[in-house]
Specification:
Blueprint lengths: L6 H4 L2 H4 L18 H4 L7 E8 L15 E6 L2 E5 L6 H9 L8 E3 L5 H4 L2 H7 L4 E4 L8 E3 L5 E3 L4 H9 L4 E3 L4 E4 L2 E3 L16 E2 L16 E5 L2 E6 L6 H11 L5 E7 L7 H14 L3 E5 L4 H10 L12 E5 L1
Parallel strand pairs: 3-4, 4-5, 5-8, 13-14, 14-15
Antiparallel strand pairs: 1-2, 1-16, 2-3, 6-7, 6-11, 9-10, 10-12, 12-13
The structure holds zinc ion (2 copies).
């Protein structure tokens, strides 16, 4: 299987033959999958993942925000995983030549504002997309600040209103659910490791008396001949719990790629140590710690597993064959 790098090379002759495809060097808008090509037989087993929202950006004309959103062209199907914090993903998608019209599905990793804030804007483009979420994603929730005050971190009002107005077809995912053929969302992830927690002071009430277990936290995955590809939202269930659970769901297949938020920004030294050891033992070919992973943990992963780490920022693309 071919993986990251200058993807124009990976894409093969099916892409090179199409004159509407832009090249990589000049600007961010470097490849477009025309609708008829997406239906083509040769596209059936190809997966193209584009980062639409992330905390960092290195390409001209695009912007970053604290949040995450991935566009996944999964064979003929277009899926969005999370929506960022605001409607920024619309501009970035336009800048990258990614269409948000006719999405087959929108999947929410969990209900936090930085993953669900673009929902209203997305539904304007794709009102008929099915929405996959765990029902707890709709809970009110709060984060306790260092001064003791509470900040709402749940789904914003505009997103809730858009769900109601559009009469969105919601698919509730409590267990593993197939989003489109071959692409799965985990549903609830069992918390088995003793060293992983939800990664912050998260509560279901403003007074901070009911801890928020983030039961809605889930990840997306699919299999390839070389192993599993895992996309994380915030990883509140713990990256190790998440990957272990996906391997259980997928017949203990090897892990090829893990990309997304590892949520280690408040992790203890012990947790970090155990997480690095576990990830090393899994021998993934690509690790892309992003978003809420935290600077210290990101540096640690990049220095200890340097040959496997890949950059995930707005505009990054990853290609796979199934
Ligand atoms: Zn997040
Ligand atoms: Zn979160």
């Amino acid at each position: 299987m071919k993986v990251a790098g200058p993807l124009i090379q990976q894409a093969g002759p099916w892409l090179a033959q199409d004159t509407r495809v832009r090249t990589f060097e000049t600007e961010a808008r470097w490849f477009t999958i025309p609708a008829q090509l997406a239906k083509d037989e040769t596209m059936k087993n190809k997966v193209h993942i584009t980062v639409l929202v992330e905390n960092s950006v290195h390409l001209r004309g695009l912007r970053a925000e604290h949040g995450l959103a991935w566009h996944i062209q999964f064979g003929p199907h277009a899926v969005l995983f999370d929506t960022g914090q605001t409607g920024l993903l619309i501009d970035n998608a336009a800048g990258l030549g990614v269409s948000l019209d006719h999405l087959d599905a929108v999947v929410l990793s969990h209900g936090h504002y930085d993953h669900t804030g673009g929902l209203a804007a997305v539904l304007e483009h794709s009102p008929r997309a099915r929405l996959f979420l765990h029902p707890a994603a709709l809970d009110s929730r709060f984060s306790l600040q260092s001064d003791g005050s509470a900040r709402g971190v749940g789904m914003q009002e505009a997103s809730r209103a858009a769900l109601a107005q559009n009469q969105v077809r919601v698919v509730e995912c409590r267990t593993r659910t197939e989003v489109v053929p071959g692409l799965f969302v985990t549903g609830e992830i069992p918390r088995r490791t003793e060293y992983e927690d939800v990664g912050g002071r998260f509560y279901l009430d403003e007074r901070g008396t009911q801890p928020d277990p983030l039961t809605d936290d889930q990840a997306l995955f699919f299999d390839t001949p070389d192993g599993l590809v895992v996309l994380l939202g915030c990883g509140h269930a713990g990256v190790v719990n998440t990957v272990r659970h996906i391997r259980e769901l997928a017949g203990q297949r090897p892990v090829h790629t893990v990309l997304g938020g590892f949520h280690l920004l408040h992790a203890s030294a012990a947790r970090l140590e155990r997480t690095v050891d576990e990830l090393r033992a899994l021998r993934p070919r690509q690790l892309g710690p992003a978003h809420c992973t935290g600077l210290a943990a990101t540096i640690r992963l990049w220095s200890e597993l340097a040959d496997r780490c890949v950059a995930v920022a707005v505009g990054a693309r990853f290609g796979f064959e199934r």
